[in-house]
Specification:
The complex is a heterodimer of chains A (about 100) and B (about 375). By secondary structure, chain A is of the alpha+beta class. Chain A has one domain: Beta-grasp domain (Ubiquitin-like (UB roll)), CATH 3.10.20.30. Chain A is built from three helices and five strands. The radius of gyration of chain A is 12 Å and the shape is globular. In chain B, about 55% of the residues are buried. Chain B has one domain: Methylamine Dehydrogenase, Chain H (7 Propeller). Chain B is globular. Chain B is about 0% helix and about 40% strand. The chains are: A alpha+beta (about 100), B mainly beta (about 375).
């Protein structure tokens, strides 16, 4: 199972507590993971990436295995540790506001 | 027994304030959607338990929430606001062409007839409609497609469509206002639109009485007189008696005619309320004195209402959607401030009391007047 940590506001919106777990069919990329996340929690559509362009929202970041994956291609494979569930993908709200 | 419910949107959540018809003691619930900006919350005139809320965040974008029990519980509905066709461009602050980009919903206007129909005024300026309780949204693109669209420019707060007024006497007629494009009207249910800015004069545009380009801050209408509109413009308080075809200034003896909020008494269509703000560079009341001004003559002659309002060291603002009236007798008047106070008057503005003092900055205040056994609303 893929593990994902959401920011607090998105956990509230999705109605979950703590990490969420996902089945991601096929290759595990940012795109396939987010597709699976939004399919399981439709209220998150449009809150992590834009509805139309599927671009990451500017003030969100994707971290895993102590790496910033925010600027990786959506179709790039995620680290093996994320794909096999040893490490979570962290979706993080950027520090902003002083 | 009648009740009053205030729907308050703030920078950090929504609050629901309720009282009986005496309007002396208030229960406060919230924050709902804590930490999110709530630009607007409004109830359906068809079913007072149906509420719509615009929830947004710089991090997570737009969410629309719906309640079927008067705000006790909420469910997120559709948040996909896709412009019709190729969005095109409008003018940016520096005069360059800028792509139309959806940012947030400023105003939600539930239908007068259908509980599941609701309009959304958005930034960048456009009007959307949902026919299924907010699940799906379709742009009424005839407005943005009006020939002047590429020349619209944002005001300091963004290029927002902030006012939506549905004509109770004509379901095909809708009024909207955009900062800083001006006011528009459709007479065919949203297919085509015309600018209704004749008579407005704005010193900050090269052609002071241009057809579009005016920074209209808010418009109010009494439902018994849908041809009569009152407008708080960037500067100037205006009035139209022909559904916006032409406007006359009615600022009269106001100490300053800059401001944002304007509303009309529930039972007296010629009684109007505004909150004068010092200037466009100093967004607070004159001389640190928070004063509502009331005209009983449809403008021009204004009286200051001060009883119960702070008359020294007050430097808050009252935003465009942050004033509303109930339909009890005597009419209740309410407004919220950027300092987090919500003030109420149960005597038509003669005297005021703070209902709450320490909310986050108030963005919007709407009122529902609830009569037991009925669904009648303000």
């Amino acid at each position: 199972m893929i593990r994902v940590e959401l920011p607090a506001h998105l956990r509230t919106l999705a109605g979950v507590k703590g990490e969420v777990t996902l089945d991601v069919p096929g290759q595990v990329t940012l795109k396939s993971l987010l597709d699976a996340l939004e399919a399981k929690y439709p209220t998150l559509q449009g809150t992590i990436r834009d509805h139309g362009t599927l671009k990451r929202r500017s003030f969100l970041r994707f971290f895993a295995c102590e790496e910033d994956l925010s600027h990786e291609s959506p179709d790039a494979l995620l680290p093996e540790a994320v794909a096999n569930g040893k490490e979570p993908l962290l979706i993080v709200g950027a520090v902003a506001g002083g | 027994m009648s009740k009053v419910r205030l729907l308050v949107g703030t920078r950090k959540g929504a609050f629901v304030l309720t009282s009986d018809g005496k309007r002396e003691k208030w229960d406060v619930s919230g924050p709902h959607f804590a930490g999110w900006e709530i630009y607007h919350v409004k109830g359906s005139p068809v079913d007072s338990n149906r509420l719509y809320a615009s929830q947004s965040s710089g991090w997570f974008g737009q969410v629309i929430q719906r309640s079927n029990d008067g705000g006790k519980t909420w469910e997120p509905v559709g948040n996909k606001f896709a412009y019709d066709g190729v969005p095109g461009t409008h003018q940016w602050y520096d005069g360059t062409a800028h792509p139309w980009e959806f940012k947030r919903v400023w105003h939600l206007e539930p239908s007068l007839k259908n509980v599941d129909e609701v309009y959304a005024g958005v930034e960048d300026a456009a009007l959307f409609r949902s026919a299924d309780g907010g699940q799906n949204w379709e742009e009424l693109s005839g407005l943005r497609g009006h020939g002047s669209g590429p020349h619209w420019q944002p005001g300091a707060g963004g290029m927002c469509l902030h006012t939506v007024i549905l004509d109770p006497s004509d379901p095909q007629r809708i009024f909207i206002a955009i900062s800083a494009a001006g006011a528009f009207r459709t007479d065919d249910g949203g297919k085509t639109w015309k600018p209704i800015n004749k008579g407005l004069r704005s010193q900050f545009i090269p052609d002071q009485d241009a057809e579009v380009g005016h920074c209209v801050h808010h418009i109010a209408m009494h439902p018994s007189r849908p041809e009569t509109l009152f407008m708080q413009k960037h500067w100037d308080v205006m009035r139209s008696d022909n559904a916006g075809d032409s406007w006359q200034e009615v600022s009269g003896n106001l100490p300053t005619d800059f401001g944002f909020a304007i509303d009309v008494h529930a039972h007296e269509p010629e009684t109007v309320f505004v909150v004068p703000i010092k200037s466009d560079s100093e967004h607070y009341p004159m001389d640190g004195q928070l004063r509502v001004y009331r005209s009983r003559s449809g403008g021009n002659e204004w009286e200051a209402l001060t009883k119960g309002l702070p008359q020294k060291d007050c430097y808050v603002n009252v935003l465009r959607d942050a004033m509303s009236v109930d339909s009890l007798d005597a009419c209740g008047v309410y407004f919220g401030t950027t300092g987090g106070q919500v003030y109420g008057s149960s005597d038509g503005g003669d005297s005021w009391t703070p209902i709450v003092r320490d909310l986050p900055a108030v963005l919007s205040v709407e009122v529902q007047t609830l009569h037991s056994g009925s669904q009648t609303l303000a």
